[in-house]
Amino acid sequence: MTRLSRALARTTALAAGLAFAVAAQAQNAAPKGASDGVVKIGILNDQSGVYADFGGRGSVEAAKMAVEDFGGKVLDVPVQIVDADHQNKPDIASNVARQWYDTDKVDAIMELTTSSVALAVQGLSKEKRKITIVDGAATSDLTGKQCTPYGFHWAYDTHALAVGTGGSLVETGGDTWFFLTADYAFGTALQADVTQYVTQKGGKVVGAVRHPLSAQDFSSFLLQAQGSGAKIIGLANAGLDTSNAIKQAAEFGIVQGGQRLAALLFTLSEVHGLGLKAAQGIVLTEGYYWDLDDQARAFAKRFMAKTGKMPNMIQAGTYSSVLHYLKAVKAAGTDDTDAVAAKMRELKVDDFFGRGGTVQANGRMVHDMYLFQVKSPAESKAPWDYYKLLATIPGDKAFLSAKASGCPLTQ
């Protein structure tokens, strides 16, 4: 073989190797564009039960508003919102999610009120390589010991509630606690997080009792709490359970007797349903309030026009999570799950809810939380004028770091 022929052979081999490398890289890269001509997002939550006002149809409407604001399309294909009622049952939620993924080609599921439901669907979504963004469920395990590469947690969590409501009450003298706890994953996690924070601050938990979801009669639970002598009765529940417990506590004269109620997960929707006369003075933590500033008011005005109600943090968070997902799809240039999940962590959250939020490696979106006190009827000057701001809790204080969360992906 001549020198020229040897050189040509080396050049040919180099070119062939380069072509192989390029082909391999292209094969391994995410496919561009939408895989099936549509990007489909599922809103799965409680639409008829104890949490129907907590998120419910309001969250579905918020998701549709986010799609409209994004332009209705991404990667030149339409964005579609589908929704279903999981009835607060993990088996029903898992069956819906499986059908959505296997038959209806849903790309991501969001909202997911109820922690047991959210944990079940997030586990299935890991198996199916699909993204979930949880707005309605609270347990910090979602981005802690049960985190997944495709699971994100958006609006709030039990740690943020513990830092906000729990911390404020301990610091103002509420150093003995008794818990009324919803008997499922959310209640257990919330009680555990608040207990840890209370004891770190020098307080003490003197007792606790568990009640079933959707309890109607809280009398026996409240009598135990009253008899404990605890300064704070922590309501580690949500939705109608919290509202019913507060109503029945008034009948027993618990607050008049000197004990305080801590509504550990209470939103604007429940305050509205309960009324200011019953809810006045309650301290609570939310990630959004409609009257915070012009941005918050602008969204709330549009939401009110569509639903007849002001949004709470679950509904505002659902809007934010849908919008961020669509921004990630656009930035990735594909709806491929791994590529989109990477972009979700890379992009800043820039909207009226997240306000410069960041997404940690464990999927936790970090943003400021707010400590509010419910106004008295005399203090309220207009419809839905329910809160006065006590403190802003910086995101890095409200939420655990990825390293401290216990997420196996970040250890």
From TrEMBL:
Keyword annotations: Amino-acid transport, Signal, Transport
InterPro entries: BCAA_transport, Leu-bd, Peripla_BP_I
UniProt entry tagged with the keyword Transport: yes
Pfam families in UniProt: Peripla_BP_6
Matches recorded under SUPFAM superfamilies: Periplasmic binding protein-like I (SSF53822)
First and last residue of the signal peptide: 1-26
Domain Leucine-binding protein stretches: 39-375
Domain of life per record: Bacteria
Family (UniProt): Belongs to the leucine-binding protein family.
Name of the protein this chain belongs to: ABC transporter substrate-binding protein
Originating species: Methylobacterium ajmalii
